[in-house]
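U., I forgot to send this yesterday:
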Amino acid sequence: MNLAIRGRAPYKALLCALTFAAFAGQTAVARAQDAAPAPSASPAATQAPADGQMTPMDRQYDGKLHGTITPYVWLPTLHQNLQYTLPTLPQHTGGTFQKDLQVGPSDYLAKINSTIMFSASARQGLGFVFGDYIYTNLSTNSNIVTSITGPLGHVTIPVHVSTSSRLASSIWELAGGFTLAHGHSADLNFFAGWRQFPINLTLGYNATLGQHGLIAPSGTLTLNRSFGNFIYGLQGKAYFDNARWFVPYYVDFGAGNEVQSWQGYVGAGYQFPHGQSLLLTYRNLSYYGFALEPPIQLQRVSLGGPLLGYTMNL
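Result:
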């Protein structure tokens, strides 16, 4: 009996030792986990806002490829300073006329033959590309009443010039860039690219000299040129707190051998839950410093007015 008790004593001691070791090991592991630093957050989690919800701006910079296309309607008022020489007038009378034209939407909407306007963009990470295309074919009329000096220099002859012009113009630009800074609700991007301004202007005129219209020379002048600009600028958008309303902004400057230009827009937009957006902005595009020779000389062309667009995700 005494031998049996003594034989089981070592096993009981070993069992007690193992139990104590297991308890001590668990306690040490728990203390080590409490003392170890927390793992660092992933880059995606770091970019998430405090409430854990990704904003539209966060989704734009999630590293995936995002494409958009925006058909729009732009109704600018056209300001144009035009100088032209009528070759059918007698050389000693001059024959160079200058006219400041202002044509608003109410003047040309009924005279537009055709028009196409849209923009498109693609972004992945911090890099992006975009393009814009405008084609307009319209007709307009204008009248000029002035006077010229007769052959002897003492007689002033009244001149009435009526013109009917057809303007076919396609303005397009293509650019690419990268993001300078962005957060959960706003970004700032730099870009550079090219803008082309082909213009096809046909000017038909009828000039009446004198009060009785004894001489009525008429003819047609044409201007077919294409002006190119290297452009650079800044663009982006800023969301309000509700992440639905935002302010888009854009400005660029263009430089070329025959013409200079600048363009800008700012306005408001609303992003729907499905990701598409409605835009309402004021856009201005100005060309100046034309290097042209007679008979038609453009001195300045400026287009400014409201723009309504709808952005769709591709």
